[in-house]
Every structure is written in C-alpha cells, then in structure tokens.
Amino acid sequence: MTIVLIATLLYLTATGLLVRAVVRDDAVTSPAWLWPALPAMLLHGGYHVLVAMRTTGGPDMHFFAALSLVGLGMAWLTSLVAARGRMAALGVLVFPMAAAVLWAYHAYGHEPSRPLGWQLATHAWLALLAYATLSVAALLAIMLWLQERALRRRDFRPWLRALPPLADLESLLFRVIAVGFALLTLTLLTGVLFVDDLLAQKLVHKTVLSVLSWIVFGTLLIGRRRYGWRGAKAVHWTLTAMALLLLAFFGSQFVIELVFGHTTR
Asked: What is the pTM of this model?
C-alpha cells in the first residue's frame, strides 16, 4: 500500500510539473518532471516484483496486472521520448493513466499464476511491450489529429506550442509504429512457436483480432512508404489497428476473467 501511494503521488507530481511547464511554454527546457517520474516508475515496477516474490506460481499476468505493466511500459517509453525532444506533453496523459492502472491492480488483488517456461514468458513480455509501444503510438496519433485540427482553425494554445512541429510529430508516430509492429510480429511468431493451444476456444478471438491488427498496422506502414500516407488517414488507420489490439487482449481477457470468472491460463 505504501509503495502504491508514494508512486501515485510521484506520478501526479510529475503530471503537475508537466502541466505547469506546458502552460508556461517551457516544457522543452524544464526537465523537472523527470525527478518525480523516475522514482514513480521504479516503485511501480518494484511493486510488481514484490508481488511476484510473495505470490506463488509465475509472474502475475492477469487482467489488471497486465494493464498495470502496460501502463508502466507506456510511462517509460514516454519518458524516453519526452526527455529527448518536445513531447513532454504526452506525459500529461500517460502518468495519471499509469497511476490509475497501478491502483486498479492493487485494489483488485493478486492471483497465483501457473509457472511459465522461458518460451511462454518470452511471448508474454513481448506482447506487453508491443501493447505499450502501440498504445503510445495511438496517443501520438490522437495528438497529431488534435494538432492538425487546431492549426486548421488557427487555434494556437499553450499545449500546441509544447508539441514538436507537425512533420516531426508525424515522423515520430511512424517510428513508434514501426517498433511496435516489429514487437507485435515477434509476439505472433512466438505465439505460433510456443503456445500449443493458440486456436483454443479461449484464445481464438485474441489470435484473430491480433492478426487483424497486425495486418492493419502493416498496411499502414506500406502505405506510408509507397504512397506517402499521412495526416487523417494515418490517424484513422492507427486508431483502428489499436482498437483491434485492445479488443484482442484486454477485451477478451476482461470478459473471460472478470465477467465469467475464468482464467486465460
């Protein structure tokens, strides 16, 4: 409880510093938000390690545990991106989200998991990294859409000045998508190689939706390279692919674990 509370306060402190920096238009030159964000993420990860040490079986990968780990991955990716350029405003969305899913994980409780071999563990961690990376891409797509909309309306607000130029934001979006697509590809490959019942009743929806998301992301990258897709088209394809991916894992897992009370393991 203490770890979760301290991590939450640090996440919110980092968010407050980022909001102040955006309002003052110095989000680029003021890295003060990193000081509370870094220990918040370390405590967030440490809480999962502590739970793993006290819970029998393998790492907890149930619904809220996976959600919390994706939130942690998003926070780390956001910090890496924001510390190197004008994307600190992304943390205004991601840090409170990470705090919220950490609290949800703590409040829901922890369930024992069966031990995983290195093959399934590799598949699971690749999946979490892919979800985290592509979730950041989805947030970037939304910010790209908001930026284009504001520029068309000549609505120049402080948060808009905190973002990089439109072309740079779009370039960053596709770099993140490319990394996430590679991770998703590895996730699907390890699933084929290491998961014996990939098309079992509890996994068939997850498998089909994940493949559909992979196809949409792949088509978007090809369209960008060959036809120069950008702007609203890139945003729509990104959000469609991400919606499929969210349904693939968290949608199906929510129904199976929380509605029907079963486990995906």
From this structure: 0.84
